[in-house]
Protein 1
Amino acid sequence: MNKTIITLLLALVAMVGYSQELKLNEPTINDYIPLLNAKGYKAYSFDVSAIKGRNLTVNFREFVNGKEVEDYPQLLMPYTFESKGDKLIFGFLPSEKDSLAEFCFSLENTISFNSSLKLKPIYWESEDKYIYSYISKPFELTTPLEKEYFIPLVCYCSFWYDAEYKVTRCCGEDIIKPDLSSDILKYVPHYYILGITIH
């Protein structure tokens, strides 16, 4: 009797084991995102339906050693335009030059353009060479949608050299606070803030 029960239990275990198998799925568009990110493509999509029909300006701010560069010229969009869509995208794409970061701005049914940001090299002391190394991080979306108020959306920040570990790095918060109080910004020698101002 006991042998029969044990045999049945073993058979059930074997059946369960055989029912678990790997399957090849048809890839979806989301499966390509890690591949695109690895090649330097990164997109940030924002729901801007709350400001549809309002006027806005794209803003770029540059910071060096924690201080805003006051004489940095507007890259693009010195004029105001009306938002006619529900989605805004800031995206980054591979650049042919190490000293430039290529990005695109797209506001649904309104405007789309590409431009570049000038980058600054950092000295990798232990390797005795200069490198360009940056990463993008989104901002925490807590800024009120008030008139003439700058809303930061994406931070594009440089790595820094860590003398203790003899490496370059840019680790810290994954989401940046809009008041720039995030710890990571204390170490980043150069960064841009990309955002919008509502009018």
Note: The CA atoms of residues 176 and 182 lie 6 Å apart.
Protein 2
Amino acid sequence: MRQKPLVTPWLRLATAVLALMACAVVLAEEKKGGKPFKIIDAECEVASSEVSATGLFVCQYVCNDTDHTKVAVVYNTSGAGQCRTPIKKKIRQYIK
């Protein structure tokens, strides 16, 4: 009686094709690149606050980096009713 192989040739072929596709995606991402950036620590001051229609408390901040990045922080409850200020955030700053 002949035994069937555990891994069929079709399964091997499908695995090889998937591995090649994964390598192609990784290489495409590396070539794609993008704008160079650096991560900086910035201090942000509160600009405005509001309670959303769903009851979330939203604080809008403006940071002291060169681009004056805007950051929003959402809290689950409006119980505090007050935004913490200043806050420290890590910001991606693109190199020009």
Note: The first strand starts at residue 37 and ends at 51.
Protein 3
Amino acid sequence: MEQQTAVQSAATLESEAVRRSAVEQLLAAARLQMALYDTPGWEKTVSILICLLQRVPDYAPACAALAECYTHWGFRRELDGLEAQSFYGLALEQATRAVELSPLDAACHRALAVALRRGADADPARRQEESLVALDLDPKDASNWYEYWRAFGYNPGDPAVTRALELDPRLVGATIDLGVALCEAGRLPEAQRYLERALELSPHNSLAHYDLAMVLDREGRAREARESIEAALAEDPENPLLKEGLAILSGGGRG
């Protein structure tokens, strides 16, 4: 009897380990897609995470990842002139649930900070607080430094973004955002280098293509800027952001 019980317990533990491994693999696959920092990756991320949460409804890391994904995707939709508020609402819902499920998880607090960035419920002060909580809980996570940097103003001289990229040189979002911040500060050659690096990491990233073209144009390299964005459009002809970029470079300005 004791032997049978031991066998059953071992089988249960093995089954739980297999289940946990499958869940972690799905989360890793979702984060890999989200790391591309562009709409096709976000679409795949949401699909994976929704399936995961159907299997494990109270899995806080998946809720947190879904919140970040919805916010990033919503902002891209906003840039494209599409409806975005529903995405921001879903992001805040998932981030709030993540923190409730796992209040000591840095990723959950970071997700809440990210979700508070845009939309009807945007709250800059609370966003800063949540980004600080995430950083205090896990100062070795590059994404926590990245969100802290964004929450406190995107200053290209802030060592927080340098720290983020030291911890994870493949952080596409931080690489793009730093390129844009450097561009706005008039540091165009540096901006160009970061945006080219972003395209090495995520070759089809429409935002990086758009931003690089704008930097080239500011550098007085209008022909190269146009050729760059035309090449990106040839691969993704219906991309709203790229079409907008071409219109700007053609003298049409923003619609």
Note: Residues 2-14 have pLDDT under 50 and may be disordered.
Protein 4
Amino acid sequence: MPGNSSADPVELELASIRQQLTELRAEQQEMKQAIEELVKTFRSLALQLGIAAEPYRKAGSSGERAKSSEIPGFG
């Protein structure tokens, strides 16, 4: 049938596009995880350098503040 022969290239192209889409989604997930890791790293660096502070800290206790400003594993 002539209809089947013309449908096969279309189906092959659709399969190829689906495969590319799947690969693209996997790459996007990897990029998302890498960006989240970068954000986490920049936040940690900002806290270490004193550029930023965690919003839930109380400003009254300077002695505890010096101790708690250290991030675990960096001290």
Note: The mean pLDDT is 78.
